[in-house]
Design a protein that fits this description.
The chain contains six helices and 17 strands. With about 350 residues, it is an alpha+beta fold.
Length: about 350
């Protein structure tokens, strides 16, 4: 290449390998630091813009992103490549979270929910939230990007109001030390909840931080900053967050295995739909369960349909649902939802998902 980049990299790593530092495979310049590659690039760019009278200080580089920021909006199918991607993603999250001391004793990660946007697009900050579900705890991971070039944020955290989520207790918050322009960083909030439950909750959230202005002529940040906060969208928790959509091959046998005393049935109107297929897809997504035995597909011109659903919650608790659909000439859809689960509370929780809309 014209810049001799490959040669330079090879020379650096050859020199490091020749030192035969068996205690670590990490290059010495990076050892002991969770280096953010994007942060390193930004810091080097800023350094090159200075007279470079002093040696570059690696301590100025922000810590790396503590978890992968990945688009989880994948197919709900629980088999094939999408399922493999989900397993890989879960493994990545589990490894990252377990490396944080505050989360080391939470047990196995059961589920990581899809990222949810907490701000509108093209605003000052980009904030998404990923909910990580454990046996009796939830970790909120907030991925943050500062889009204001003239500012750097410090001591960045998310404050959460639990007034409408009384079943949850805040355990701790892990703030992001620094959020420079264009760098992704994370802050975390850990909550506990009663084991064996799937509680609803609405949490009012705000981003709290210290703002320091950047001098555009020198690129230096001001020594003194000021505290500020930025309102975020509300965060909702529902039983759907605690359930993994899993398919089974013999729905009837599994249905008969569950206690009939847990069965709850009710009817709901779900409004006008473009088609019965559209209604089936909406209900499956809302419940967060997996359609079994091919019942996700509605025959052409059908006016009624039965969909069989299955899922597992934290602790291996199973839930099955039989959903009877009907559509009238005005395209109004009504359903009858019948649920059997590991216990009656779980059955009620699934009905509450539909009732809450």
């Amino acid at each position: 290449d014209n810049d001799d980049e490959v040669r330079d990299r090879a020379a650096v790593y050859l020199k490091l390998l020749n030192k035969q530092e068996e205690e670590s495979k990490t290059p010495q310049v990076l050892r002991g630091k969770n280096i953010s590659l994007s942060g390193l690039e930004q810091s080097l760019r800023e350094y090159l813009a200075t007279p470079m009278m002093e040696t570059f200080d690696i301590a100025t580089v922000p810590e790396k992103e503590l978890a992968p920021v990945v688009n989880m909006a994948k197919s709900k199918d629980t088999s094939g490549p999408a399922a493999l991607d989900e397993l890989t993603l879960k493994s990545d999250f589990e490894e990252t979270l377990s490396s944080i001391p505050e989360f080391a004793d939470l047990g196995p990660l059961y589920k990581s929910c899809e990222p949810m946007d907490l701000v509108e697009k093209e605003t000052e900050y980009t904030i998404t939230c990923i909910k990580h579900i454990f046996g009796s705890h939830i970790v909120f991971q907030f991925n943050m990007t500062n889009t204001i070039e003239e500012q750097v944020l410090e001591d960045v955290s998310v404050q959460v109001d639990l007034a409408e989520a009384e079943d949850y207790q805040e355990v701790c918050t892990i703030p992001a030390t620094k959020l420079p322009y264009g760098v992704v960083a994370q802050t975390y909030v850990l909550f506990s909840y009663p084991e064996g439950t799937m509680p609803f909750g609405r949490m009012v959230a705000s981003l709290n931080f210290v703002v320091k202005e950047i001098d555009p002529s020198t690129g230096d940040e001001e020594e003194e900053g000021f505290e500020d906060e930025y309102p975020l969208e509300d965060i909702y928790l529902s039983p759907q967050d605690f359930i993994h959509a899993t398919k089974i091959s013999n729905f009837r046998n599994k249905w008969e295995e569950l206690d009939p005393e847990t069965e709850i049935a009710d009817e709901y109107g779900i409004g006008v739909r473009d088609s019965l297929q559209d209604a089936v897809e909406a209900v499956v997504e809302t419940l967060g369960l997996a359609a079994c035995e091919g019942t996700e597909a509605v025959p052409p011109n059908a006016r009624s349909h039965v969909c069989l659903l299955h899922g597992k919650a934290v602790g291996g608790m199973e839930a099955l649902a039989r959903v009877n659909f009907g559509i009238d000439r005005n395209m109004e859809v009504a359903i009858k939802l019948t649920v059997r689960a590991a216990n009656a509370d779980m059955s009620e929780a699934l009905h509450a998902i539909v009732a809450e809309g």
